[in-house]
Amino acid sequence: MSHLGGLIASRSRPIVTAEFPSLDGGDIDTVAAALEPYRPYVDAVNITDNPAAHAHASNVSMAIAVHQLGVEPIMQVVCRDKNRLAAQADVVGASMHGVTTFCALTGDDVTAGDEPEARRVFDLDSPQLISIMNGISRGHYLSGRELKHPKELLIGAVENPFAPPADVRVRRAKTKVDAGARFLQLQIGYEPQLLEAFMEGVCGNRVAERAAILPTVIFTKTAGALRFMDNQVPGIHVPAAVIDRIAQADDPAEESYLMVREQVQHALSLPGVAGVHITDFRHDDSLRRLVNDLSIGPGATTQSAVSA
Questions:
Q1: 189-203: b or e for each residue (b if 16 or more CB lie within 10 Å)?
Q2: 157 strand-pairing partners
Q3: Residue 146 DSSP class
Q4: Which residues are within 8 A (CB) of 25 and not within 5 positions of it... i.e. 6 or more apart?
Q5: Rounded to the nearest 10 degrees, what angle do helices 252-268 and 286-294 cross at?
């Protein structure tokens, strides 16, 4: 069982995962340097698959490198770019090198990226991809053909509790967990009442018992970054009051950090939340500061995770 799988099974402390930056070339030393700021503070890192429809170093190569460097990768696989053959080949190929944790995503449309003329694939949707990964973990391809050396896989997915209608999002979460997902990383959101409603729903249908629910927060420094997300990032809405809070602060960077800390405290206070997922656009000391302030992640003490 992977380290992350063990934490999901035990629920012994809040889990911390983080988004690993996309790279555009380099070598193993380049990956190692990018990994060091995360290593002491997180349980696993997401290896993205051409995020926002921009080409980067392949998810397979990056996941293998991170695994070789001693941190658990969560290898994302998006449905936008790959048909079922390519997706299965990537999962099986990565597992040959010890990568056993995966996350299925539909993927942003190509119009979000810098090559909008690219052809969409979408041979599968994310629940179908989860089911295929689950089959690979059990020792067979989608066709039924046997895998001679199967590996036990830990499979996850994403969900957006902030996109209406809320009841549909709760049902989608169940569909993904029924297909084999054991963790769900949630989209970033700035409306805590919607996260509360989603968690009430996934506790009510027992999804939160069967899978680790990990709300996402994003480290930013300015109101401009929040405006950009609100205007340009599909699926994210930042209320005007949130933007104004940062814009009107004497120290916007510090106020931004405090807001993220409040978001994590709120998330961890909700029944059914198993931890948090972090995206860092600040690239400063905020990750270390957060996990120490709240005593979460691999360096956690016995202090309450929400006492700060």
A1: bbeeebbbbbbebbb
A2: 104, 184
A3: B
A4: 57
A5: 40
* Rounded (5°) CA angle 296-301-305: 40
Mean pLDDT value of segment 137-149: 97
Instruction: Please tell me the number of Cα atoms within 13 Å of 291 on its side-chain side.
Output: 26
**Cα–Cα distances in Å, from 56 out to 31, 35, 52, 60?**
13, 17, 10, 11
Instruction: Annotate 83-109 with DSSP letters as a single string.
Output: -HHHHHHHHHHHHHTT--EEEEE----
CATH architecture of 3-220+272-294: Alpha-Beta Barrel (3.20)
At 110-134, the pLDDT tens digits run 999 999 999 999 999 999 999 999 9
Domain residue spans of the chain = 3-220+272-294
Q: How many CB atoms lie within 10 A of CB 145?
A: 7
Q: Angle at which helices 84-96 and 59-68 pack, to 10 degrees?
A: 20
Q: Among candidates 135, 43, 26, 51, which has minimal Cα distance to 91? A: 135
- Look up residue 115 and give its DSSP letter: -
Say what the pLDDT of residue 303 is: 41
CB 76 within 8 A of CB 103: yes
